[in-house]
Amino acid sequence: MKGLDGSAYGRTANVPKEDTFLTETAFGTPVGELLRRYWQPIALSDELTDLPKPVTIMHEDLVVFRDKNGGVGVLDRHCCHRGASLEYGRVEPEGLRCCYHGWLFDTEGHCLDQPCEPATSDYKEKVRQPWYPTHEYGGLVFVYMGPPENKPVFPTFDILERDNIKLRAYRNNTRGVVAECNWLQIHENAVDPMHTFVLHSANSGNQFTPAFSVLPEIDFEGTQNSVQYIRNATLPNGNRFHRIGEVFIPNFRSLPSQTPKGDELIKEPGRFIGWWVPVDDTHTVGFHIEALPIVDGEAEGSVWADAVPGLSNSNIPPPETYEDTQRRPGDKEAQTSQRPVAVHALENLATSDMGIVKFRHLLRKAAKSIQNGEDPPGIVQSGNSVISVASKNEILPPE
Question: Which residues neighbour 350 within 8 Å (Cβ) at sequence distance 6 or greater?
Fold first, then answer.
């Protein structure tokens, strides 16, 4: 390590470039192409009303809509006629009609009508609006933005396919409605279990439950397409808190509940599958599908879904001033303050960061597999794809 004399001279003034291989997500970039090989959430199903919804994802300006026959489409936002935005289009039974000259497109971009052209014209058959395939699952609308010939089977997740649960889809606003930083520094937070002991307990007060306030022992395991953290702590009452979180390639993850108190013995699987989706390289949006247990005929509430935007869960009181935020910061402050794009060259990673190291290695390897003409991990091209998820909470009796 350089600069052990402590001087900031020439160090804070000269910031190295970020690791563009891992953080850039535009078309043609290594991780941009990796993300495009997987189905990505783009909207909530119930956000699709009688108006189209403009969306930007991985630097691409798109519009998502549900036609009046129930079909869902994702099109290039700019009409292929003269470039007017289809966010101002009219939703009709067969598709979306441009506001400017009335060209009508179906959910796969076929032009069905050109009212300003002669009735005998076949020109509508010679143009097509750029489009992407869609799939609805668990209350989310997903889009596949990769090469058509490489479109994978849409995967399901075992923890979302259980009995006695109700699925709830929502936008994960815990880092803000739009997080003002790169997607990777948020995503890899989920394989950093030590921060729950410091940030959410010792530093900012109890933001989860007292069970998280005990310094844990941690370990990390890698699979073909994920990194798992294994967190173990002996609680003051002698019970053992065993917790596993799992972060998958490229940008989805699963964590168990934040709410175990430590006195009641429990064994529960992970609660959600969540995605951090790049808007561009310095803005990110989040989505969750959460499996809420049904108790006495009613689904439990969700501390994530009901959180005030910018807070890690609904149990945290909102800050009233900037000073209040300084005294009890959360995930949003810790991650967005790493710079709009975290600079890996300035980090000094330690043993507790082994999950971060493993995930970045896996991410880089997956992106390089595409460059080598191979499918990235976890992709299934035919049949069924069910992803087995290891995340769980267990409160066990004393040994």
Answer: none
pLDDT at 170: 98
Q: How far apart are CA 387 and CA 289, in angstroms?
A: 14
- pLDDT value at residue 255: 96
Per-residue pLDDT at 2: 58
* Residue 250 burial (CB count, 10 A): 25
Between CA 31 and CA 363 the distance in angstroms is 8
Question: What single letter denotes the amino acid at residue 330?
Answer: G
For the whole model, what pTM was predicted?
0.95
CB 286 within 8 A of CB 173: yes
Asked if 177 and 185 touch (Cβ cutoff 8 Å), the reply is: no
pLDDT computed for residue 4 by the predictor: 73
Residue 134: alpha-carbon gap to chain centroid: 17
Strand order of the β-sheet with 111-113 is 90-92, 95-97, 104-105, 111-113
What does the pLDDT read at residue 397?
A: 97
Cβ count near 22 (within 10 Å): 22
What separation, in Å, do the N-terminal and C-terminal C-alpha atoms of the chain show?
42
Q: What's the Cα-to-Cα distance from 314 to each of 122, 129, 284, 318, 330, rounded to whole Å?
A: 57, 42, 21, 9, 13
For 259, counting Cβ atoms within 10 Å of its Cβ (0-12 exposed, 13-18 middle, 19+ buried), the class is middle
Residues in the chain where the model's pLDDT stays below 70: 1-3
Classified as helix, coil or strand, 124 is helix
